[in-house]
Amino acid sequence: MTKIFLNLANLSITASYLILAVLILRLLLRRLPKNLLLWLWGLVGLRLALPFSLESALSLIPKARPIPTDIAYSPVPAIDSGVAVIDRAVNPVMAESFAPTAGASVNPMQIILTIVSAIWLAGVVVMLLYAVFSYSRLSRKVRVSLPMGGKIYLCDGIQTPFILGILKPKIYLPSDMDPENQTYVLKHEQAHLRHHDHWWKPLGFGLLSIYWFNPLVWIAYLLFCRDLEMACDERAVAGMGEVERKAYSYALLSCAAPGQAVAACPLAFGENSVKSRIKNVLRFKKAGFWVIAGVLVITLIAAVCFLTNPKAEQEEEILQTVPDTVPTETAEEYQQLDGYYTYTNGGLTLEIDKVSGAKTRTARDGSGEAYEQTILLTEPGTVVSIIDPDMNGDTENWRLCEATGAMEPIPIRDDSRSMHLMLSANDFYLENVNSDSRRVLLFQRRVEDISFYQPATAADADAYDLTTGNLLYSYQRFMKTAPGDLNKLALALVVMENHSAEELVDTTGLPAYLKDENTYRQAFPFAKPELSLERMKQMTVEDLLTLMLIRGADDAAYALARFDAGSEEAMVEKMNEYVKYACMDTNYTDLYGLSEGQYTTGMDTIFLVSRMLSDPCLSQIWSTRDYTFHFPDTGEEYTAVTTNYLFDDRTIPEFYDVRVTGGFSYYRGTASTVCTARQDGKDVLFVILGAQRHFAENGWQLEYYGNHEEMESLINTVFEAMESSPPQFAD
Fold it and tell me: I need a surface site. Which of 99, 164, 258, 537 has the fewest CB within 10 A?
């Protein structure tokens, strides 16, 4: 629902520019026949009704999506209206009031948007109920009417003539109406029917019901109803002489309806500013050819300028993120530097010391927008000087961030012309979210010596200090690697965002491709092949998450996806939205880690695991060795055992490591393992991605496990290095 509301809010904002343009044109063209002005209101209706819009270089809409789709997950929420004055006024307030605090499980903006979306939906329901109630009340009033022929009825108890009905409209006249006025009233109402106005007014009210939160839409609807009645007056008096027009005006005056609220129906003869309508009738002149042609040209220009969106900037090529060490780069890719590097963006100049290399590339943020990114090779203790910041208010949106999550915005004081920031050994970047083309300055730690450990076959290897937040060791942590079953980490995080661990999930109706014997032998190693999750009928979210994470069970993943998102495809979309909102370089194509086109990185895996460990339920599953399930029909118990042999000695004892405190290990695709280990009070997260395995000649017994051998080696090497040479690691 939040996504729907954000889309409608963006449509409402872009339509507001068109409404303002129509209001100005309506004022300038106020002497022209109102029938011509209805063309302009038709453009407003199209803009509000269509969920898409063509692009045009002539569009005067500043931004097609002023409110970013990822604003609920942004570390510093901000709008991009395209109007600098508005952005400068709104964004600092949003950043101060709604920016997430460190350690918070939910972004404040998520809560605000959920509440606002619920209020919007309630408003829509109220508006529609009001329309239904008004229509029903009038229908009851005219239930007893005297037919006069030709869809015309006389009725007691009504004060003014009107049309009621959409598919079969009828004209209702007060039974005590002066017969002299009936002729003019019928001309008016029949003109409404000829031009199908009994459709346009309810459609307008329907749009008003959806966009009720926008005051400009209310103004547009009220003025549209007034112009609709005046246009019908003009059609009715066309060809009349002065005497007849005066008689028509008298009929208007005598049938004037009392003040009433905004309504979707009916089309009443005496409503909408009778005084203005009488003036318009008496001075009405039929428009000539050139007047009609001129208004048509104006309408076309308005359509091109305000009914279209601005052309999107041509997408630049996205360069792959590269490992952080100089030996893995060619000399030509980096500009070799020695000492200071100066970076200028608008009115802000940054001066960075201890820089050995720099390069600029095109990257893409979580919403898909391209931006320029400068990568520097630095050393621990690098100092950044912000010199002569632009004091117009933009500089407060520059912030110092870690690669694994945003820190607090940099406090730039008005009384200071410069400030210095000390960087630790982690990855950091400075980001200006208000600049016209989003720019990021990324600082990467330069590891002087990585020869103390070289993975045998793994594509990525990382060690991350959970206590200090420092990256202790990294081998190609930005290299894209197939995630395998580790894609289920994102699935688990999405589920826990929306549900509690105790909620019950329907486990019946599993697809045929998840019912093979191997699936259940893997999930329940001591169970008979015919046993399946379908026999459980219902399981808790925690049960299914445990089975999915410690065993990689695909049937549990399917049940959770259907429960949370409705289908596999919808859940994959939610998983991709989750990682993109977090600015992660990860992509999923299925729930099971089997399809092509999926990739992740070591840094993204660290980010996902850090998020998991902050959730009580997922943190408990992380350290689970085995989990017992009770089948309700027989009372039998079956135990699923973790596949992380480093953490459990019952399957392959030679890999068991007493230091390992939790984690997951999977076999499918290339082998991957994530785990935490503790030694001398230090908690470290280890990642091995894409290791290779060797099978025996029989095809199923493994001679070389890859992920377990290399993880064991990585843990030993890192803890030994931490004991022998602490300066080699983070401050």
Answer: 258
